[in-house]
Design brief:
The complex is a heterotrimer of chains A (74), B (263) and C (366). Chain B is of the alpha/beta class and 263 residues long. Chain B contains 10 helices and 10 strands. Chain B has helices spanning 4-7, 33-47, 82-92, 104-110, 112-121, 161-164, 170-175, 191-209, 224-227, 231-245, and strands spanning 13-15, 54-58, 73-76, 97-103, 126-131, 134-135, 141-142, 180-187, 214-220, 249-253. Classes of the chains: A mainly beta (74), B alpha/beta (263), C alpha/beta (366). Chain C: This is 2-oxoglutarate ferredoxin oxidoreductase subunit alpha.
Chain lengths: 74, 263, 366
């Protein structure tokens, strides 16, 4: 059982759906949403929020800096 | 089960947007490496407390609007001339942190003369060199760094070295110049690579502050629009095709005055 | 009385640059102006005033170093000769588009192409009409003596900063190489960093403090409406220069029936030609434009009704003559405007100027 829990907040309007965060996530937390934002991009979201460990890989690789990452120790 | 709202609190923040990154949507294509490297520069200038000391020089190419994204003073250069402009700024303002941010068309083609001489004089600047082997802004034409057989809009049958010459390794070239103190080749396609790239850029900035001569950080990058691939596929293609020709790592880490690598 | 010396035009210019508190010079060797950088390097102003002098790898790099340094709000310059100034045309256009103040010195030689190293005035059009791409103007000053090579340096910087615009001293190999008595200017202190921020901090890249927005030096604007507004602002600035900065010297124009119009070296020739003509009983005056942009058209318009004609004397195929014709045209009265010139590095003789006057202006009257 993980000793940490994380959460990411995606600024969905800024997201361009490049999917690099999805690729970078070691826990398979993220996916592109079926919905699109106002500019027509499928934005990233937490599909499996419970799996997030707050490693911030998604934020680090995001070219549009639209991901904020939080983490708590349990 | 813990509620998301209990995690998303300011005290639990581990990664967020640097205050020096201006709140606007970047004009880059989805997945473009420019966004990542802009972010790293903004974070470093912020973390190192250099906003008031920094002057950036933006190129011609996709990063022409770099000045819209990082909240510092900027100068926009003519195509390829950024190192000369940075020279003028730095020579008259030696206490400033001056950097150029250039693509491969800008730096390796039209500005090959300016970069070689700035590096050879050991100008006290950081050069950030984005190499994606193609002209992005003008629509995917061949760059000096385009790989052999690589298809671009001006090499529709692939780059023919008999016609177009060979992919130009600028970083190897400038590593030979005694004016450079730190020359490295990085990438930014994975989280570890981005973190490593940030450390390299930080070292380059440190060197400028310590007046150690020219620091040169190449970032092997993708241009998924120009390459006509998805961002993820472009990253894979870069790893398989660009990295063998443009191997990652430090080429030089030492003192000004040494012509070759001493690492 | 300042310090009197016997010096070469190019060397005087270098001395004046140091004394006027210039912060930086970036240049590339080319005949006939290499003495400027040589003199600067010999004087080592960095030990005296802190001025930076750097030999660039090309004229292209030199003008871009000027762009960068000028963008930080400091007094900077370059110098070159005709082929080198052609190479700088790109940078000058960017400097004008980004509204940066700086000084560019062109010690002209004969062209086109590599041409000759002998003196010429064939870069008049390039200097006053633009030269690089886009609608822009430089302030252009034309010294006709070694003394003015001294005096115009400070004036050029003053105008450049007044209008945030590149200023050019347009001279030629004869004045650059000639030795004359000169009264050197007194030393002015370079601006301190605080003074630079105070004077130019509203636009220059002096480093962004929390107290202001970031400053961006650029000529780029993709929005056509905004770009047109930029152009309208530039044009308004150029019209203001035309209204406020026309400079000239009028010599014996009061009773003149014929006017030589000439600047720089050809004005010196015309001064002698005027004496010869006056000895022959011809009432000739000399109008010597000091600013080539703005062209002193008001005085041409003022003289036009009083005289029978103008002879433009230039060391080129006839360039300034077009500006004289334009000024006369604007008076809506007809006056003859003729041209005499030599090219390829030849300086016209006073005798042939008088011959041209008699043949082209007076002759046809008889």
């Amino acid at each position: 059982m993980a000793k940490v829990r994380g959460a990411v907040v995606v600024d969905t309007e800024v997201c361009k759906g490049c999917e690099l965060c999805v690729e970078s996530c070691p826990e398979g937390v993220l996916a592109l949403h079926l919905e699109v934002n106002s500019r027509g991009y499928h934005y990233s979201y937490m599909k499996n929020p419970e799996a997030c460990i707050g490693c911030a890989n998604c934020g680090v690789v995001c070219p549009d800096t639209c991901i904020t990452v939080y983490r708590v120790k349990l | 089960m813990m509620d998301i709202k209990e995690i998303v609190k300011p005290e639990n923040l581990v990664y967020g947007k640097s205050e020096l990154l201006i709140d606007t949507i970047m004009h880059y294509c989805p997945g473009c490496t420019h966004g990542v490297v802009h972010k790293l520069m903004a974070e470093l200038i912020d973390e190192m407390g250099l906003q008031e000391k920094s002057v950036g020089v933006a190129p011609v190419g996709c990063a022409v609007f770099a000045y819209n994204y990082i909240d510092i003073d900027w100068q926009e250069a003519a195509h390829g001339r950024a190192p000369a402009i940075a020279t003028g700024i730095s020579r008259l303002n030696p206490e400033k942190f001056v950097f150029t941010y250039q693509g491969d068309g800008d730096l390796a083609s039209i500005g090959a003369g300016e970069i070689i001489h700035a590096c050879n004089r050991g100008e006290n600047i950081l050069v950030v060199f984005i190499n994606n082997g193609i002209y992005g802004m003008t629509g995917g034409q061949m760059a000096p760094t385009t790989l052999e057989d690589m298809v671009t809009s001006t090499t529709p049958c692939g780059r023919d070295v008999d016609l177009n010459g060979y992919p130009l390794k600028m970083t190897e070239l400038v590593a030979q110049l005694p004016g450079t103190s730190y020359v490295t080749r990085q990438s930014a396609q994975t989280a570890p690579a981005v973190r490593k790239c940030k450390r390299a850029l930080k070292k380059g900035i440190r060197n400028v502050l310590d007046r150690k001569g020219t620091s040169f950080v190449e970032v092997v990058s993708t241009c998924n629009s120009g390459w006509k691939m998805s961002p993820a596929k472009a990253n894979k293609w870069m790893e398989e095709n660009m990295f063998p020709y443009y191997p990652l790592g430090d080429l030089k880490d030492g003192e000004k005055g040494n012509p070759v690598s001493n690492n | 009385m300042g310090e009197l010396r016997l010096m070469k035009g190019n060397e005087v210019l270098a001395e004046a640059v140091i004394r006027c508190g210039c912060d930086g010079y970036f240049g590339y060797p080319i005949t006939p102006q290499s003495e400027i950088m040589e003199k600067l390097m010999e004087r080592q102003p960095w030990t005296e005033t802190g001025m930076v002098v750097l030999q660039a790898e090309s004229e292209v790099a030199a003008i871009n170093m000027v762009y960068g340094a000028a963008g930080t709000g400091k007094k900077v310059m370059t110098s070159s000769s005709s082929p080198g100034v052609s190479l700088m045309a790109e940078g000058i256009s960017y400097i004008a588009g980004a509204e940066l103040p700086c000084l560019i010195v062109n010690v002209q030689r004969g062209g086109p192409g590599l041409g000759t190293i002998q003196p010429s005035q064939a870069d008049y059009f390039q200097s006053v009409k633009g030269g690089g791409h886009g609608d822009y103007k430089m302030l252009v000053l034309a010294p006709s003596s070694v003394q003015e090579m001294n005096d115009f340096v400070d004036l050029a910087f003053e105008l450049a900063f007044k209008y945030r615009n590149p200023a050019m001293i347009l001279t030629d190999g004869a004045i650059g190489q000639m030795m004359e008595k000169v009264e050197l200017s007194d030393y002015k202190k370079r601006w301190t960093e605080e003074e630079v921020v105070e004077k130019n901090g509203s636009w220059a890249t002096t480093g962004k403090p929390a107290s202001r927005q970031r400053n961006v030096i650029t000529s780029l604007e993709l929005d056509s409406d905004k770009m047109e507004q930029n152009n309208l602002r530039f044009q308004a600035k150029y019209r203001r220069m035309e209204a406020e900065e026309q400079r000239y010297e009028a010599i014996q124009c009061d009773d003149a029936e014929y006017i030589f119009v000439a600047y720089g070296t050809s004005a010196r020739v015309c001064q002698k030609a005027m004496e010869i003509a006056r000895d022959k009983g011809l009432k000739v005056g000399l109008l010597r434009p000091i600013t080539l942009f703005p062209f002193p058209k008001n005085i041409v318009k003022e003289l036009a009704p009083k005289v029978k004609g103008f002879l433009s004397v230039e060391m080129n195929a006839g360039q300034m003559v077009e500006d004289i014709k334009q000024a006369v045209y604007e008076t809506q009265i007809y006056r003859k405007v003729e041209f005499f010139g030599r090219m390829g590095g030849i300086i016209p003789s006073p005798g042939e100027v008088v011959d041209a006057l008699e043949q082209k202006l007076i002759g046809e009257e008889k």
